[in-house]
Amino acid sequence: MTSIAADFGVSRATLSSDFTRAYRAYLEEEKAEADVWRRFQTDRYEQLLAAVWPEAIDGDVRANEQASKLIDKLCRLNGWDVPVKAEVSGPDGGPIALASGSLEEMEQLFNIARQVNEDEGDEGDEETGVDEDEDADAG
Predict the structure, then answer these.
(1) pTM of the predicted model, to two decimals?
(2) Which residues are within 8 A (CB) of 15 and not within 5 positions of it... i.e. 6 or more apart?
């Protein structure tokens, strides 16, 4: 970095400051472009949603599925999804008692957690946590 500063006839501190300022400007420009693209894509999804909405409300199953997928895409695109908080607890919502931390107790704990996932209707891939629809959208 010192040799680059010398090539430009400035101090290392000036070079660092100039580079930081230019890089921040670049990042702001990238963010602005991403915001424009996100707004453009949101508008497109909203137009598609408006087209299928009347049929979905009237009970058309296929239109309802399309509307649901479009709403999901809008939520993911704009960060509107609320994180799901999952808590595993013992009987009556109390703590899970692990006296010795034996292998058997750990297996019981994993079985409880697995049951919670099944009860919540977890549609994602159990190993990766990736929804199959998201895989199709990405490809």
Answers:
(1) 0.47
(2) 1, 4, 5, 8
